């Protein structure tokens, strides 16, 4: 069975101060998404789709797409005016519509089970291997999956982060997912500044914008996006998060979400100060022989 990796790379990178997706981290100038593509190839994925802004296309093809070998690559473009039929664009809107809308942009080029990830994060090969195996063995289009990372392994030392805190039942299925903002470590504890009872368990399971879906998700995004636009017509900062789409489907009994164990070390780039740590860690993996010095030779 064919499986696709969708990489969301259209974000503004506001906290980072630029297009963090394009920062070189590998010894041959590879960006963080190159390592995800390499891991996906090793895991057995057959296609990769990058969701980007159309203004990035020429630069992205030159610096990323043209260097990738061993897998089919396609681009999808997130447009502000790409809306469900009958919806009216918001002229004053400048901020992207969010991760659900970004994924929806890939609906024309994704026709098989797929994994979606962020271009900002390094997930580790085991995440791609377990997800690819899950996708290839599922015959029910309502069976989804996600890797479950541990909160304490996903905190930046350089500022607050937002995380999707997950509730998982005894059988390993997601029952709830809640987006929390302004999370940071304070000494030996992790706190959420926006909560009255603000301490979070260090071993809380979080979703790092990584899911395994069937194409059924595109229909649900479209339905939910229509409702989102009607509710937030005047809110220029509101975003239609993928977590919200997943939560709505779970609550309605339209899908199940298996939480897959994670043993790999996650790395992310939220702030510029995170760059050096990620670069050192990746170079260490190269030195250990886990990655070649040039990924696509």
What are the key terms here?
single chain, 297 residues, alpha/beta, seven-stranded mixed beta sheet, five-stranded mixed beta sheet, 7 helices, 26% helix, 25% strand
By DSSP (H or I, 4+ residues per run), the number of helices equals: 7
Largest sheet: 7 strands, mixed
Compressed to H and E, one letter per element, the order equals EHEHEHEEHEEEEEEEHHEEH
Give the N-to-C terminal Cα separation.
27 Å
- Can you count the beta strands? 14
Average predicted local confidence, pLDDT:
90
Rg calculated over all Cα atoms = 18 Å
Identify low-pLDDT runs.
12-17
Coarse shape: globular
Secondary-structure-based class equals alpha/beta
The percent range for strand residues is 15-25%
- What fraction, in percent, of the residue positions are helical? 25-40%
Largest sheet, order of strands side by side? 10-9-8-7-11-6-13
